[in-house]
Write a structure and sequence with these properties.
Layout lengths: L11 H19 L4 H11 L3 H4 L1 H23 L2 H19 L5 H18 L3 H9 L4 H30 L1 H23 L14 H7 L13 H6 L1 H17 L5 H6 L5 H28 L2 H21 L4 H16 L4 H10 L4 H30 L3 H27 L5
Helix pairs in contact: 1-7, 1-8, 1-9, 4-6, 4-18, 5-6, 5-9, 7-8, 8-9, 8-14, 12-17, 12-18, 12-19, 14-15, 14-16, 15-16, 15-17, 15-19, 17-18, 17-19
Length: 418
């Protein structure tokens, strides 16, 4: 009796490990835990929050400038070495920032962070996943995003414990060093440009060929870049996407808010973990809703969850349980950044010229990120309170809940009518 030979694991799945290396680990361990260092740094050097967060304003501005350059380099050269350079630059300067007792050190770190994130924050994962996967693309993108959330959920309380035990400088040095080593190893070992470079076909090609089913023609429909540029829907989408990232960026203020109030630093650090866990679950839930309910209902639901979550955290006072519930619900609004934004673009303009159209949205995300940190810092520095920040975020989510159905209707009436 014959035996069926074991199927070899397609190398595409090792690309997922590479994505975890150059994307989930740097952003999860260092990028998304930046909030736990704000209060200790301010207290150590007597800096204002505007000073302490200036590097977070510099980073997205630099990234917005370098993203088109990174795109051209990724297309022309081997992303394995480009991403290795990006991770090394980010890791080394992050380690250097642990000795940052002068503002210019942090600002230079912000420049390096911006250059490196232009490669690995929004560009590299979809570029490699789309090259290596003919099917299950959405699943792999979701897994990459979930890995980032889980990494941050673990790193935040660990980082807070290290800060309490050894101080912020030792804590940042340990976290940055671990991140740099792990990220470099996974990036160098597993990143490959495309299947052709290894004599392979993209994952899922055999299954589609065997079934005799081609890609649905409807998926090839979409607006041209010129049609999108003439549609008011694109500019409303750019505004919505920017506002969503501005609201999502507020979670970086949560540790400082908690540590300076009755909740305490430990509650603030755990809140980041709760947002990450809630956001991880929300990415799968929102993805399912997009497929079965539609973008209007899903988008509005995500925005209302974001507003409700922030409202509950705002009124929680010293009620830690209510604060945590609010953070969990806010996770759905936070997840909108990686699920709702790209899905709104696809629903509005199709995938015919999706990369070119979404590049405009990506630029707005970086720019609004830069603005958000300064806005929150200025509000706190001028008022001595986070109250206005909470109200601003609630207002942003409610405004987006109104704009999403309007934008989708305009998109249907514009280029699709041509």
């Amino acid at each position: 009796m014959g035996t069926t030979p074991a199927r070899k694991i397609h190398y595409a799945w090792f690309i997922l490990i590479a994505c975890i290396g150059f994307y989930a680990l740097p952003i999860g361990i260092i990028g998304n835990t930046a909030g736990i260092f704000v209060a200790p740094v301010m207290q150590a050097y007597g800096w204002s929050q505007t000073d302490a967060l200036m590097y977070r304003t510099i980073q997205p501005l630099v990234a917005a400038i370098f993203t088109p350059i990174a795109g051209r380099l990724m297309a022309k050269y081997d992303p394995r070495w480009l991403l290795t350079f990006a991770v090394a630059l980010f890791g080394v300067t992050s380690i250097w920032s642990s000795f940052g007792d002068l503002l210019w050190i942090w600002n230079v770190y912000g420049v390096a962070y911006g250059i490196s994130s232009a490669f690995f924050m929004y560009l590299a994962v979809p570029t490699l996943v789309n090259s290596w996967f003919k099917r299950d693309t959405g699943l792999v993108l979701g897994l990459s995003a979930a890995a980032l959330s889980i990494t941050a959920a673990i790193a935040s309380p660990v980082g807070n414990m290290l800060i309490v035990a050894y101080g912020w400088q030792v804590a940042r040095l340990i976290m940055s060093s671990v991140m740099t080593v792990l990220s470099l190893v996974l990036t160098v070992v597993f990143t490959r440009k495309n299947p052709e470079s290894m004599g392979l076909l993209p994952y899922g090609t055999d299954e589609q060929s065997a079934s005799g089913v081609d890609e649905p023609q409807g998926e090839e429909a979409g607006a041209t870049l010129r049609q999108a540029m003439r549609s008011p829907a694109l500019y409303i989408l750019i505004l919505i996407s920017g506002l969503i990232v501005m609201a999502a960026a507020f979670f970086q203020q949560i540790p400082a808010f908690a540590s300076m109030g009755s909740l305490g630093a430990a509650a603030g650090a755990l809140a980041v973990t709760i947002v990450m866990i809630g956001g991880t679950a929300a990415k799968f839930v929102l993805g399912w809703l997009c497929d079965h309910v539609g973008m209007t209902g899903t988008g509005v639901t995500a925005m209302l969850c974001g507003a409700l979550g922030i409202f509950l955290a705002f009124i929680a006072g010293s009620n830690v349980a209510l604060f945590y519930v609010g953070m969990a619900i806010f996770g759905f609004g936070y997840a909108a950044l990686t699920v709702i934004n790209p899905m709104l673009a696809r629903e509005s303009f199709g995938i015919r010229n999706y990369p070119q159209i979404y590049s405009w949205v990506s630029t707005s995300i970086f720019l609004f990120t830069a603005v958000s940190f300064m806005v929150y810092a200025q509000i706190y520095d001028r008022t001595g309170s986070y109250d206005m920040c909470f109200m601003l975020v609630i207002g942003i989510y409610l405004l987006c809940a109104i704009l999403i159905p309007i934008m989708l209707k305009i998109a249907k009436r514009s280029w699709r009518a041509e």
